[in-house]
Design a protein that fits this description.
The complex is a heterodimer of chains A (650) and B (165). Chain A has 650 residues and is mainly alpha-helical. In chain A, 56% of the residues lie in helices and 7% in strands. The chains are: A mainly alpha (650), B alpha+beta (165). Chain A: This is Palmitoyltransferase.
Amino acid sequence: MPAESGKRFKPSKYVPVSAAAIFLVGATTLFFAFTCPGLSLSVSPAVPIYNAIVFLFVLANFSMATFMDPGIFPRAEEDEDKEDDFRAPLYKTVEIKGIQVRMKWCATCRFYRPPRCSHCSVCDNCVEEFDHHCPWVNNCIGRRNYRYFFLFLLSLTAHIMGVFGFGLLYVLYHMEELSGVRTAVTYLGRPKKEKTIVIRPPFLRPEVSDGQITVKIMDNGIQGELRRSKSKGSLEITESQSADAEPPPPPKPDLSRYTGLRTHLNLATNEDSSLLGKDSPPTPTMYKYRPGYSSSSTTAAMPHSSSAKLSRGDSLKEPTSIAESSRHPSYRSEPSLEPESFRSPTFGKSFHFDPLSSGSRSSSLKSAQGTGFELGQLQSIRSEGTTSTSYKSLANQTRNGSLSYDSLLTPSDSPDFESVQAGPEPDPPLGYTSPFLSARLAQQREAERHPHLVPTGPAHREPSPVRYDNLSRHIVASLQEREKLLRQSPPLPGREEEPGLGDSGIQSTPGSGHAPRTSSSSDDSKRSPLGKTPLGRPAVPRFGKPDGLRGRGLGSPEPGPTAPYLGRSMSYSSQKAPPGVSEMEEVALQPLLTPKDDVQLKTAYSKSNGQPKSIGSASPGPGQPPLSSPTRGGVKKVSGVGGTTYEISV
Amino acid sequence: MATEVHNLQELRRSASLATKVFIQRDYSDGTICQFQTKFPPELDSRIERQLFEETVKTLNSFYAEAEKIGGSSYLEGCLACATAYFIFLCMETHYEKVLKKISRYIQEQNEKVFAPRGLLLTDPVERGMRVIEIAIYEDRCSSGSSSSGSSGSGSSAGGGGAGAR
């Protein structure tokens, strides 16, 4: 074996072949990994197969061209050139087919190179039929491996063309992906999505069911105001501002108030009707614009004027608002809660403020009577319309801690409040009182009334510290009362609470079926006509009904209990009216009912005639804050221990 | 035969390579693998011309047959290409088969013809198909002081043949 000349390992010799091999294998692998899957689906599954075959061919030829001996001449032994070495001419002429060919002496290989033989400096060998030395295969291309090298070239060309062509095809198939990078998220330059959804009325509205009760936990007045200001935003701010801007007006004579109330009522009715006709949820903004609501309903802090307005407007609006709230508790709960919170106490306060309710009960009675008709008419109208407004006013008032107390104290007084609104309240000095004052008065009245009420309807107001229980009970009671009203027709005579309250409640809250209208029940006679004819209610005298029941919402001890009555009347469905007061409450709640409840309302009227005070009696025990707020068909306010107000929207 | 063998054995024992004769390629017909059939003068006294020419001609035919492109070789090529040349692990090509045949023939010739005459042929494959190397061994024992060239060639041919193998 001829010893080869010392060959050193030259790494530079292997760079081209390594690069070529890596590029070839890498590119093909990428092609198979990324484009073949898509192409196999979009074009044909034969695509990757063809490409695989071609790639295999390329690899085989590449390997053969690299490792196949090209025809290297072994070194000539010493004996062979012994004669020629020293005096060997450089060339030896050979005749090939008559042609003289020179053969060169290869000093390294020591022989005369045959024709087409050349010495490769890279390989340091003479290769027969030497073509060239290919760095990409790191091998000479000679006679023996020329075939493989050529096939390698051919297959590589085919492979390149295939990969490029199918890659281009893939890109053409997925042109849309070119515009956006998959991994990058951009906001700009995104294709605009066409609107395919068409919004057309009528829209679906959630149905209000009796079982729907939304509990809203509200703070006492102070904090609640802040919260309201924060949450409600401008509205609350405006409300508070308006509230602050309007100092409580001095007490006005009943007549003036009465007239004002009339106008207010008219306005309120108009506004209510107009506003209600929109069939839009009484948002706080809307409340703002409502004369009755704007000031009082929106802000709990609204003092007397607002409360007065509220009372005026509430009496009329409450039934509508209540009805509305009852109808749409979901979205009215919030806005309605406030006004309702307002209203509930305002009802009580309205009793106080009501121009209809003069300073004295008698006067209030008269005025109430006088206005009761109007109010009744208005209320009836309103009741037919919406009751949420009144509820809202109540709710607003209840925002205030004191207000809430009112509502809570007199859950059953809501109808009473309403009725009282329809009729004069026996506490003229309180007519203008701020919600706070009215609330306090209501509380006082309630406290005073409690002794009265307790005997009459202990079941109505349970002075249990647990508000939730009362609330639930009230709610259930209101519901039961509704049912009872529907079944029963005769007004319950026992209801002393404030006929005015009851009537007002009835009138003002047509929507409520079961208003714990103890007040209304107080004057059965009044109520019956009222119930029969919502327009003309002789319940006015009821409004001015005396007794402890009266004093509830009027600033005197009675207004206290009346307030709760109103509050109760407010929460028709949600309140559980005490048995005695049930009828009254029902009646009181009726105005709060939705229009469909008008019939019930009327029946309730008749029923509740003469059933007063059970509501008043049902009012929470003396000295106890109102446990449950009257449900106005939409929101029921329950005051918890510590003055916390809970508004439950039904 | 026995004397030749004996002579061959004697030659082996005491053979000394005298000289080598290289038979070059014959390019008169192109670049095909052919060897000159010209009788080298060194073999004049060692072997008959006829034997020599016959051997060379047989070799030429074998080479021509090896490089002959026929149906079988074509199929071989296609098969090899189709299998990515993995067929070469299992099967040898026609060319290689012929080469094997040539090798067997040379071996046979050496044993039969050349060795008794003190000659030794070398497979040209070992030389890259450039030249046929004939080693002429000198019979020291028998021949004593024979011509160095012939003995050298004979011995060299024998040595070359032995080295090649």
